[in-house]
Amino acid sequence: MDTLRTLRPQAPPAPRACPRCGCRLARDNTDSHCSPCRFALTLEEHRELLLDDEATPEYKAAFESGGVVELARVADCSVADAISLAIRSGLVPRRWRSSEDKLRALVDLEGIRHVEVAVRLGVSRWTVATWRDELGLQAKRKRRPNRSAS
Ligand SMILES: [Zn+2]
Hints:
elongated; binds zinc ion
């Protein structure tokens, strides 16, 4: 029985916390981060690798004419994915990549005022205004006068 006992791995001395989210790590977790955070970090690294694709002229033209909505149509993807595409392919400032999740969240916040969106995303309203302007996403769609009746 003594042999078996010595083969058992030693229990860590104290519970460790994930440095990213602060949750307590499972005792059998040998990683430095919890698994959801490890997954998120791996995804971020992966995205980093994809960053240097140049936008095709077709994507560039679509983005310039109608922002991410038009880019989504041309690239045949969701508007949120078009935002990721715009970030990866350098259609928006590269520094925005660290805010990718927030930028993608803008899609679901369409029609909500800059100030409210800013509070929800934890950024300034000027940042929200800049993001929306660059991406071609508006706070509130202005109603176009209906000219079809003639
Ligand atoms: Zn974590």
